[in-house]
């Protein structure tokens, strides 16, 4: 996956300027793929040179002219070809997990504060996702059908945030009690899912 594909996906949904696209990375797709304004503009330049997107210049009275991009048929073909490619399992890079791994060297009070802050941050994100979900379910059936795939990515985000919150609370409690986990995680998951490990 590259920024190229994320931008093509966004432009396939709706044309937009570089600014518009950068704003879309602030929500929706931005919940699972990040890009700065500068990265978006650089990628648009490449996509335009490769004829995967094209733009129209819109004149603005008191601002610089605006380029509004749209995906080309070549861009859509590229996007469809990419969708057929298998995805490799993503590797995790988490500073927090590295800190937990090295927690024996940490000040327990400071680590507890950091975990509390992370929990609060993830709870805030979960509240934002809950509001997005509420809006989805308040829409009519036709709108929900159109938004089904973005909603399924939102469900992934909800599970992600909830899982992090639960895990961090568990770590916080185990550290506070200076305790060991009582059961293997796979056993707990199997019991929750009513399956045999």
Describe what is shown at a glance.
64% of the residues lie in helices and 7% in strands. It is built from 9 helices and 3 strands. The mean pLDDT is 91.
Major sheet description: 3 strands, antiparallel
Number of domains: 2
Q: What is the tally of helical segments? A: 9
Strand content: 5-15%
Helix/strand/pairing category:
mainly alpha
Globally, the shape reads elongated
The beta-strand count equals 3
H and E order = HEHHEEHHHHHH
Radius of gyration: 22 Å
Q: Which residues sit in consecutive blocks of at least 5 with pLDDT less than 50?
A: none
Q: Which sequence of strands runs across the widest sheet?
A: 1-3-2
Instruction: Indicate the percent of residues in helices.
Output: 55-70%
Mean pLDDT: 91
Distance between the termini: 33 Å
Report on this structure.
With 197 residues, the protein is mainly α. Helix content is 64%, strand content 7%. It has helices spanning 3-13, 18-24, 37-49, 73-84, 95-101, 108-138, 141-146, 148-177, 185-193; strands at 16-17, 53-58, 66-71. Strands 1-3-2 form a 3-stranded antiparallel beta sheet. The protein is elongated. It starts with a helix and ends with a helix. The mean pLDDT is 91.
């Amino acid at each position: 996956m590259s920024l190229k594909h994320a931008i093509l996906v966004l432009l396939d949904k709706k044309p937009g300027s570089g600014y518009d696209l950068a704003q879309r990375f602030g929500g929706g797709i931005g919940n699972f793929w990040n890009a700065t304004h500068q990265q978006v503009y650089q990628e648009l330049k490449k996509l335009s040179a490769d004829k995967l997107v094209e733009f129209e210049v819109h004149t603005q009275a008191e601002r610089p002219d605006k380029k509004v991009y749209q995906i080309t048929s070549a861009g859509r073909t590229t996007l469809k070809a990419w969708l057929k490619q298998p995805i490799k399992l993503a590797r995790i890079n988490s500073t927090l997990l590295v800190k937990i791994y090295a927690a024996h060297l940490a000040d327990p009070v400071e680590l507890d504060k950091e975990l509390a802050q992370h929990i609060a941050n993830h709870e805030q994100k979960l509240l934002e996702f809950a509001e997005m979900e509420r809006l989805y379910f308040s829409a009519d059936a036709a709108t929900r059908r159109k938004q089904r795939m973005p909603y399924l990515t939102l469900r992934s985000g909800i599970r992600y945030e909830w899982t992090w919150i639960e895990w961090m609370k568990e770590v916080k409690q185990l550290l506070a009690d200076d305790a060991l986990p009582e059961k293997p995680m796979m056993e707990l998951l199997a019991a929750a899912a009513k399956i045999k490990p």
